[in-house]
Structures are given as C-alpha cells and as structure tokens.
Amino acid sequence: CKTVQLHIRNKDLSSFVRQQKLSYPCRTSEAIYTSALELFRKNHSFSEPVRTLSVCAADLDYRETEQMSFDEEISVIQRRESLETAFDDINRKYGQGTVKRGLLMVSPELCRIDLRNDPQIMPGRMKGT
C-alpha cells in the first residue's frame, strides 16, 4: 500500500478519518501499524474513550515485480516483507498462530486471541457495516 487510513469513532458515535502517505510503498503489517499509530497519536485526544478503531491499507499496488534499490531503507523494507511472507506461508501450512510476533508472548491474554474467529476482530470491514 501507499496510503494508510485510520477511522476513529468515539463513545458518542462521532467519528473522523485521517490518512497519510507512506514514504515508500510497502506490504508489511509493521509499516501499516507504525503509520496508523502515528496517525492515532497525532489526531486523538486521550481524554475520551474510543468505541471503534479501524485501519485500512489504501492505494494498493498489485505488481508482482518491483525494482531493486541500493537505498538502505528500501532494502530493510524488502527484508521485512520477505520475513512476513515466510511467516504467512508457515501459518498457512501448519495453522494460524504457529508463528507469532514475540510481542504477543509478553501477555498471556494476547497469546489467546484468536484472530480468525474473534467476533470483535473483523478484518476487511467494520462491525455493523
């Protein structure tokens, strides 16, 4: 994706959307997460609770090939994309959750989240829409 969008709905059901372009097109969840977190910190008042938080990867590029670069930042992005692809391949072959990020191991509650079947986690759409 080239753009990350963040949708925030507050407890009074008022909502807003913010987006930002990434420095480089990417496919890693880490880049999308970092951008969404930055948008959240810039645009949300921590004094009121959040009812719904949605993150969307936008301005997608479906090319199978990409130009190689000597730029160190792009090389790091490409290595992270390869690592995530390997994680996804292992999880597809041996079952979701076979490989997890180390951060999830910090909390037993986070380890138990079933990303595929949890009714509160709805990839691709907002609950109730």
Sheet of most strands:
3 strands, antiparallel
Topology order in helix (H) and strand (E) letters:
EEHEHH
Number of strands: 3
Helix fraction, binned, reads 25-40%
Strand line-up in the sheet with most strands = 2-1-3
How far apart, in Å, are the first and last alpha carbons? Answer: 23 Å
Structural class: alpha+beta
Helix tally equals 3
What is the residue-mean pLDDT, rounded to a whole number? 77
- Report the portion of residues in β strands: 15-25%
What this model shows, in words?
With 129 residues, the chain is α+β, with helices and mostly antiparallel strands. The protein is built from three helices and three strands. It has a three-stranded antiparallel beta sheet with strand order 2-1-3, covered by helices on one side. It starts with a strand and ends in an 18-residue tail after the last helix.
Which properties best describe this structure?
single chain, 129 residues, alpha+beta, three-stranded antiparallel β-sheet, 3 strands, 19% strand, disordered C terminus
In short:
Helix content is 33%, strand content 19%.
Write the layout of secondary structure elements.
Layout: E1 3-10, E2 15-21, H1 29-43, E3 50-58, H2 72-94, H3 108-111
Antiparallel strand pairs: 1-2, 1-3
